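Look over what follows to help learners.
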Amino acid sequence: MSVAPMQTLGAIAACTGAEALVAAATRLRDAGYVKFDAHSPFPIHGLDAAVGMKPSKLPWIVLAGGLFGASFGYWLQWIWSAVAYPLITDGKPFNSAEAFVPITFEFTILIASFTAVGGMLALNGLPRLNHPAFASDAFARVAADGFFLTVDAADPLFDSHATPAFLAEIGGFDVALLEEPST
């Protein structure tokens, strides 16, 4: 019986606390790594900057969704009232903008909210059912008291020997390669 060769997915290192995690993430970013992530049991002020996260595009996506919803809601009412079924009601014109305000507002909120959820899922890469860090037994502590850095093997600077050594140098402990059997 032969053993399947292992595929390296990245490297993981534990940190002693929130401050150590931010400092290690900053040093990792300054060293030129770009495909890495920091994991903690609670939000940490300054960690976004340490990891090098850019401002989110989600507000612009939601704005576009809201504008589309408003335009579509108004157009839908106009097409029904002025084109498909033009009825004069109480002497109002076919294209009565004042009467269209409530439905236009509701379409704006409806489409913007669906866009917010869909955009958030897409920008976060969700649903992601598996993460390479799940292969580490120590990573189970991240929900309670663990602070971890993971470096993806797809990072241009990743080296299966140098990266774990660098993680240990910047204060990481329990440093390990994340591996799974290759298919």
Summary: The chain has two domains: 7-55+129-181, 58-123.
